[in-house]
């Protein structure tokens, strides 16, 4: 939706038309004025760029890796809506990977290999990706969430199509497989799913609003100089309705 200079209240109202909204577990990334707004911004609420060693900055930088929103929840988000308030002129584009197409393109041997595999997702894994964040994080700034298990292949509840369910910034390992072998398989699938043929690149214009389905996509942010260039976006996240459906249930 181009050219939508709306307020946070209007964004929340729009999001609620699709169901209840999540509250993000990172307390310091919530808007102080509306806790349903998740601030995807490298600034504080006064517009000052956050220092690179700050835990706020470190967390956000890690969350710019490929991921699906709220994959760390037992019932992940069904969708997200993002408002581009202040955009960058170089870098900072949002990339989306089509997980239907990524699954369809797997050879039959790989599809059979991963058919009944489950992946452990953990919010704390985001912290462990950065040694500095892991060492300096204030545990009180993050709600504690237990690890959860999700099927590696899921069936979309509406379309009934199969797709990969990957979220690299929360995936710890494949349940029941030796850590080194599980990680190698996940890395192989991530490389496969993020090939150019499966990617849409959204080049932002000010006040764009984009909306996506977290159940069949993952996304990331292209690098930019986030120590000097401000990038401010506000997101609402649609609460999921059901646990992911494993392909073996279909």
From TrEMBL:
<dbReference type="GO" id="GO:0005737">
    <property type="term" value="C:cytoplasm"/>
</dbReference>
<keyword id="KW-0408">Iron</keyword>
<keyword id="KW-0223">Dioxygenase</keyword>
<dbReference type="InterPro" id="IPR003819">
    <property type="entry name" value="TauD/TfdA-like"/>
</dbReference>
<protein>
    <recommendedName>
        <fullName>TauD/TfdA-like domain-containing protein</fullName>
    </recommendedName>
</protein>
<keyword id="KW-0560">Oxidoreductase</keyword>
<keyword id="KW-0479">Metal-binding</keyword>
<dbReference type="GO" id="GO:0000908">
    <property type="term" value="F:taurine dioxygenase activity"/>
</dbReference>
<feature type="domain" description="TauD/TfdA-like">
    <location>
        <begin position="1"/>
        <end position="237"/>
    </location>
</feature>
<dbReference type="InterPro" id="IPR051323">
    <property type="entry name" value="AtsK-like"/>
</dbReference>
<dbReference type="GO" id="GO:0006790">
    <property type="term" value="P:sulfur compound metabolic process"/>
</dbReference>
<dbReference type="GO" id="GO:0046872">
    <property type="term" value="F:metal ion binding"/>
</dbReference>
<comment type="similarity">
    <text>Belongs to the TfdA dioxygenase family.</text>
</comment>
<dbReference type="Pfam" id="PF02668">
    <property type="entry name" value="TauD"/>
</dbReference>
<dbReference type="InterPro" id="IPR042098">
    <property type="entry name" value="TauD-like_sf"/>
</dbReference>
């Amino acid at each position: 939706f181009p050219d939508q200079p709306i307020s946070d209240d209007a964004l929340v109202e729009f999001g609620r038309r699709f169901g209840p909204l999540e509250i993000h577990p990172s307390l310091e990334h919530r808007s102080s004025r509306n806790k349903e707004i998740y601030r995807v911004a490298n600034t504080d609420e006064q517009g000052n760029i956050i220092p690179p060693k700050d835990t706020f900055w470190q967390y956000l930088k890690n969350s710019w890796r490929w991921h699906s929103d709220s994959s760390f929840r037992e019932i992940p988000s069904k969708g997200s809506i993002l408002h581009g308030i202040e955009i960058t002129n170089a870098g900072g584009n949002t990339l989306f990977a089509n997980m239907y197409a990524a699954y369809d393109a797997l050879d039959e041997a790989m599809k059979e290999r991963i058919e009944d595999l489950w992946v452990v997702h953990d919010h704390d894994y985001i912290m462990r990706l950065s040694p500095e964040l892991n060492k300096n994080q204030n545990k009180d700034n993050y709600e504690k969430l237990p690890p959860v298990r999700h099927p590696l292949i899921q069936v979309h509840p509406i379309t009934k199509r199969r797709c990969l369910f990957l979220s690299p910034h929360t995936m710890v390992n494949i349940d029941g497989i030796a850590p080194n072998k599980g990680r190698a398989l996940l890395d192989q699938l991530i490389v496969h799913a993020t090939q150019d043929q499966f990617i849409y690149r959204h080049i932002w214009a000010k006040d764009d609003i984009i909306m996506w389905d977290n159940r069949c996509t993952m996304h990331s942010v292209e690098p930019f100089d986030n120590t000097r260039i401000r990038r401010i976006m506000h997101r609402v996240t649609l609460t999921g309705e059901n646990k992911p459906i494993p392909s073996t249930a279909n």
